[in-house]
Design goal:
Blueprint (H helix, E strand, L loop, with lengths): L7 H8 L3 H12 L1 H19 L23 E7 L13 H5 L30 E4 L4 E4 L3 H4 L5 E8 L5 H10 L9 H9 L9 E5 L24 E3 L17 H21 L4 H24 L6 H7 L7 H15 L4 E6 L11 H25 L6 E6 L3 E7 L3 E5 L3 E6 L7 E3 L1 E2 L6 E3 L2 E2 H11 L9 E3 L2 E3 L15
């Protein structure tokens, strides 16, 4: 009924195959499976690129157009590490003082606090509040200088996130995820738009003070992207870039020859390990460092600024000198084509006021308030504010409940941030928290929405900005988030 199946010996006679050669050839075929998968990924990437979904790698001085014409060319993100209290700065809550010392009313949802403070008495605030500008935005007496910029600011009072501790909160505000390993927002901007500066990095990180930033370099990592998009950290103090100048006796030609040799050696290793982007990034880093010897000294030389400009930023005052220098440096960097500047104030979670919030925030606001206001005014006076988006905020806010009697706990459920410039409508407030400032209650804005809004200001669509990683399309907001259109003028 069925044809007779030939024996193995017959197969060997007819084809010349031995059992061993047949198994060897069959085994070789399994190697084609991952190759076919990689080829499909390449084809999908090419097809996505045709419709503008995937943007290619760019080097220094190479730009790419966004998905739409962007209002902003650059972003300065002023990161208050540790979680500033929205209740004492931007979000006035008269009921909080009225109920101070009492337990939270049963009509309010009681959160599960990471520090076990959910049932602690409410802590009143001692601020004096006033309306500012033609818009009449409420701000406290802790930020008198920022208050003078009210008509240029949009205060978002309904932010929320998932990170309940500093590591996860800082990670999410930088990368969109509470778990490390993803590219930072600055890396996405570098990948999407490239760099306008040939002799400066596209993404720069500045840190005020000597404390370690929570998570460290993971906050400005390029994650699964090419390492060329990671942030470049500059030092605080009077010499932001270490070893910028050539040693005495080393000529440009000698420096160039050394760089060529390093490039050749790294190139050989890069060809041997083509999937490791660190080698290519290292080569580009050396090339950029060589070019920075020409352009960077001018960018970081704050002595070229006028005395009145230094007075504006407070670099002539002990309490504002450090952060004032960094805010002024941020303006000089974006002026020269840097795409994204991340500026950390209070590294080491200095804003984390679990106790003694009065002294903690008084000192930090005194150091931060004047320089931030100066940055906004200086950008505006130079006609740069409309093309520079300034973002202010931390990883979360603080609770209305007290901790240790005179402090506040972490609160990712509702907090405030503000934006200015970059097409953002000034003199407005967006969203609300409840009457005690615990939860975002109206027009809620998630971290992914914040990131999508920042990207839209630059002309980038958070859902069309795609990086194919391991055969999977990755997006900066993890396939979530929408720009807050009401913030744009």
């Amino acid at each position: 009924m069925f044809p007779e199946t030939p024996s193995i010996g017959l197969v060997r006679q007819q084809t010349g195959f031995t059992r061993r050669s047949w198994l060897a050839r069959a085994g070789q075929g399994f190697g084609l499976v991952p190759l076919l998968a990689l080829e499909r990924s390449r084809i999908r990437g090419a097809e996505a690129a045709k419709i503008g979904g995937v943007l290619g790698e760019t080097g220094p001085g190479k730009t790419r157009p966004g998905h739409t014409p962007g209002r902003a060319k650059s972003v300065i993100f002023l990161f208050m590490e540790g979680g500033p209290s929205h209740l004492d700065l931007f979000d006035r809550k008269p009921l909080l003082n009225k109920l101070a010392g009492q337990k939270m009313p049963d009509s309010f949802v009681r959160p599960i606090s990471p520090m076990g403070e959910g049932n602690s008495p409410l802590l009143g605030e001692k601020r004096k509040w006033a309306r500012h500008g033609k818009s009449g935005l409420w701000m406290s007496d802790w930020i008198p200088n920022i208050a003078t910029c009210a008509d240029d600011m949009a205060v978002i009072r309904s932010c929320y996130a998932e990170g309940i501790n500093h590591s996860s909160g800082v990670c999410q505000m930088n990368t969109g995820s509470v778990v490390g390993g993803r590219p930072s927002l600055g890396s996405w901007v570098s990948y999407g738009l490239g760099s306008e500066a040939d002799d400066l990095p596209a993404f720069v990180v500045l840190q005020d003070g000597k404390g370690p930033v929570v998570n460290g370099p993971r906050n400005w990592s390029a994650g699964f992207m090419s390492a060329v998009h990671q942030g470049t950290r500059l030092e605080s103090g009077r010499e932001p870039i270490q070893n910028l100048f050539r040693p005495d006796g080393v000529s440009t030609a000698r420096d160039r020859a050394k760089l060529d040799l390093l490039g050749s050696l790294n190139g050989n290793i890069g060809r041997e390990y083509p999937t490791n982007s660190d080698f290519d990034a290292r080569i580009r880093g050396y090339e950029l460092a060589f070019r920075m010897q020409i352009g960077a000294p001018d960018a970081v030389d704050l002595a070229k600024e006028s005395r009145s400009t230094h007075a504006l930023y407070g670099t002539d005052r002990p309490d504002t000198e450090s952060f004032g220098r960094l805010c002024l440096l941020s303006r000089r960097l974006v002026e020269r084509g840097v795409r994204f500047v991340q500026l950390y104030h209070g590294p080491g979670s200095k804003w984390d006021a679990h106790t003694g919030i009065e002294k903690n925030h008084t000192d930090l606001c005194r150091a931060m308030d004047r320089p931030v206001a100066a940055l906004l005014k200086d950008l505006k006076a130079r006609g740069m504010l409309e093309e520079t988006l300034v973002v202010w905020g931390g990883e979360f806010g603080r609770t209305p409940m007290s901790e240790k009697g005179d402090g506040r706990d972490h609160n990712p459920n509702g907090f405030s941030m503000f934006m200015a410039g970059g097409g953002i409508k000034g003199g407005m407030e967006y969203g609300e928290t409840d009457d005690l400032g615990l939860f975002a209650s109206r027009d809620k804005v998630h971290v992914h929405d914040l990131h999508a809004t920042i990207l839209q200001s630059l002309g980038l669509d958070n859902m069309r900005l795609v990086y194919n990683h391991g055969g999977r399309p990755e997006r900066p907001t993890l396939n979530e988030g929408e720009p807050v259109q009401a913030l744009f003028s």
